[in-house]
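Protein of interest.
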Amino acid sequence: MLAPTQPASPPDLSSYGRLPGPTTDLQQVKRDLKEFGYGFVKDALPPEQLSALQKRLKDQAEGEVKAGVAFFDGGPKKPNQRIWNLPNKGQEFLGLLEHPLVEEFIPECLGDGYHLSSYTANINRPGSKGMGMHTDQITINPAIPQFPLGVNLMWFLCDVNEENGGTRILPKSHNGLVAPNNMSDISGTTFASGPAGTCLVFESRLWHATGPNVAKEGERPVILQFYVRHFVRPQENFTLSVTPEVEAILADKAKQALGFRVTATLGGVEGFRPDGTMVKRPENPVVALNAEGSKA
């Protein structure tokens, strides 16, 4: 049995010749995703949708601060704010679950029955120290398999660049042949950059990290939709955390993504359910019974 190959240290960025940049050519983005582990879709959000998402996220962030339920990180002073479980927090976020790019990239990369592992926002503010290099697949499977188990869609709600904390990326690290020498060292990485409305598509094996924000003012809000294959346990248990009011208005594609669809016998309620069945919490679940058929 051959010993596993030891990943090499990050090469100089100039050795790549070119790196992915924002483009409206979806086939090029798919080629970049395959070659580099990431790609950028330019103008992924039309102006009206972008404006609505900017306002809804800003209002939600301020509301969570005032309600005393906000979550902060990004270093000792914790300048960054994260917003969890976006399906509950506005119709604008539900709309992104039906964005054409979901159907364009996710089934092709992850197969049928994919679902949402997490749906969050990260507001990176000046003074953020960034985070350690990681892959989104570390918590799914410690070993690097021959195919991705997840794909992330990161939506830029502002112009993103190196100064305001653009995500640090180690190109081509998704193939397991390159890895950071030190998780806290971003040398050898590039940074995500693109205008507001761009969508960064990257797969779960890619080494990356929130970049340090050295800007003097402003903030870098992004939304992250992390999808996984149907057999992977998600980070957020949406079938419990999504409110009944939201569940009632979800389209079937969104219900599938949030875990309400049976795929390959997985995700059933009270036993076997045919593939494709949409499930919900049973109103009259079968409980412990006595021999006469009454509750035990």
